[in-house]
Amino acid sequence: MGWGMIQAAASQTKGLTLPELVTSRASSFGSLTIIVISAIVPYKITNSYHLFEPQLLPFDMVDRAVPFWPWTIWIYFTQYVIFIASWLMIKNDINRTRYFYSYLFILVASLLIFIFYPVTFPRVDYPLTDFDPSITVWIFEYFRTHIDTPANCLPSQHVSTCYMAAFALLPESRKWFWAFIAWATIVSISTMTTKQHYFIDVWVSVLLVLLSYYIFYHCTSYYSRESKRIW
Description:
Number of domains: 1
Order of helices and strands: HEHEHHHHEHHHHEE
Radius of gyration: 19 Å
Strand content: 5-15%
């Protein structure tokens, strides 16, 4: 079967055709490594250097109502666990490929917004010095000062990463999907209780995840050069 015939067959089923990237344990590890590096390096650059002045957004009713709870930074940090946990729990290589493309789409869309419409949060209005000294306060202060600036708020990569991790499990396990949705929701709330994000950052991120899931799980076919099959 030639590539032209494959494209024609795919066009009859779904609008977009992409190669299957994850076909083995080695390619799974390689894809995961690419995602992690792609998430960290461009984020750090756009978080530290800006073409345009980052903008403050007005607080809405939710922003004003949510309290500042520094201890929830520990929940916030679990974002780094949920993504890898979801990747390792997926059994089907096609679903890992979908996850890969979905996350890269979210990442690229987020980076474009970070570059051309940077949004920042007024963290100075929520000083950690108001709280008694503790390991939590020290780690949170170090994170604020040396790792993460107030920029890159909209959309929230914490929120999009967590919800994408949940939706990636939906084709294989509804039980784990709902468990990860609950986890993602708790992390999303923590982005506001740590005063890292606005409420608009949260729901825009969820919409971005839904769009990405629809494109790469429902509107895209995947071609395997090894098996000459289309999914």
